[in-house]
Amino acid sequence: MTSGIGAIDRVLARVGKRVVGCIERQGSLVVQARSIVRAAPCPACRCWSGRLHGSYFRRLAERPVLDEQVVLSVETRRFKCLNADCARRTFAEDIHALAGRHQRRTRSHARALHALGHALGGEAATRLAAELGLSTGADTVLRELRRSAFTRRKHVPRIVGIDDWAIAKGHHYGTIVVDLERREPIEVFAGREATSVAAWLRANPSIRVVARDRAGAYSEAADTALPAAIQVSDRWHLLSNLRDNVERMLHRLGPQLRHAAQQVTVGGATLGRQGLSRGAGLRAWQRLSDDRRSKRLALYEKVTALRSQGAAPSKASRANCRSTIEPCAISSPAAPFRSAHRGREVQRRWMPTGAISRTGLPKAATVRS
Q1: d(Cα 35, Cα 181) in Å, to the nearest integer?
Q2: Looking at residues 237-261, what average pLDDT do you find?
Q3: What SS3 class is residue 123?
Q4: For the chain, where are the alpha helices, taking DSSP H only?
């Protein structure tokens, strides 16, 4: 605990405070600090004054130390401004490095709440903060997030992407602007007219590259507001345009493609990867698929050989399961790889005419009343 108090003393020394005592009160460790500041500048006129007007104590919550709640009781002095032309008569010494104005927690405590809120949100951050010894509420966490958004240094965008988004699909649309360097949205506003987009672009002259779709409004806005900026098509729209053009070309050349396909002669069954060597380039699921395909192809060739010799289906069933024999009985090299919904065709091939009911099942299997 002594080392923790020593660290607090070094931090307080940066703002002109000195630790004079430490007491335990209502389950919290209260660190008392006195001010050693003898003069301070007026925040309005920047004139220094050493004339003391009074003092008061600020209670600031700090991060826990060894599972003990820590509260800093810091003396803050007020001085009288000696400049007769200044509008302020009294002012307090500046401890901005320790805590902000009207704040009841140190900046270290506020940074911890901000990190929890940014990662988890309000309610979840509150639950985790309670486990870490940081007493707070969901509203407080959200206030810290909003406060940090205002105090954070604004990033100057250089490369942005502009696109529309549906507020009410088919009825009302808006525009979103994304900083492509930082990969985060920086502006959202209603409407997708060229005038509103151009007004926003004029307010941000630092933009050098604008990524957009083929919408004429965004192109017109960029040409009007930032004529020197480079306009590019984003990757998603490039791929989408390529897909649309390929589909239109295939629809247009459909008769020619069908005619060309009829001219192709296939010498044997298409084996996919069966003709390739089993190397390290294939994944585990690909090798398993190849093994299963090879087994089914071997079974098909065996059944075909039995059938060519005039063997009855019952004889083939004794060596192999009938559920496999029936699909394989179709005289096509691709038969082992067809789906099971073709079983009705196999039943009609092996059963005599009239042996199948309207439901597709053998009449012998139907329930009789």
Answers
A1: 46
A2: 88
A3: helix
A4: 2-13, 107-120, 122-131, 138-151, 194-202, 216-225, 235-252, 254-262, 284-308, 313-319, 322-328, 343-350
CA–CA dist 78, 40 (Å, integer): 9
| 122, 139 Cβ separation under 8 angstroms | yes
Q: What is the 3-state secondary structure (H, E, C) of 200-268?
A: HHHCCCCCCEEEECCCHHHHHHHHHHCCCCEEEECHHHHHHHHHHHHHHHHHHCHHHHHHHHHCCCCCC
Nearest Cα to 160, choosing from 93, 230, 92, 95?
230
What is the distance between the terminal CA atoms of the chain, rounded to a whole angstrom? 90
Q: How far apart are CA 58 and CA 68, in angstroms?
A: 20
Between the alpha carbon of residue 184 and those of residues 52, 170, 179, the distances in Å are 49, 26, 6
Structure tokens belonging to residue 221: 């806005």
Which helix (H) or strand (E) element contains residue 48? strand 48-49
Helix (H, G, I), strand (E, B) or coil at 304: helix
The predicted-structure confidence for 355-364, as pLDDT tens digits, reads as follows 445 444 444 4
* The pair of three-digit structure tokens given for residue 150, joined into one six-digit string: 């205002």
Condensed to tens digits (0 to 9), the pLDDT of residues 301-352 reads 888 888 788 777 666 666 665 554 554 444 444 444 444 444 454 445 444 5
Q: Beta 159-168 vs 209-212: how paired, if at all? A: parallel
Rounded Cα–Cα distance for residues 12 and 107 (Å): 12
What is the pTM for the complete model shown? 0.46
Distance, in Å, from the CA atom of 248 to the CA atom of 234, rounded to the nearest integer, reads 21
Q: Which amino acid is at 17?
A: K
CB 157 within 8 A of CB 210: no
Q: Are strands 68-80 and 28-35 parallel, antiparallel or unpaired?
A: parallel
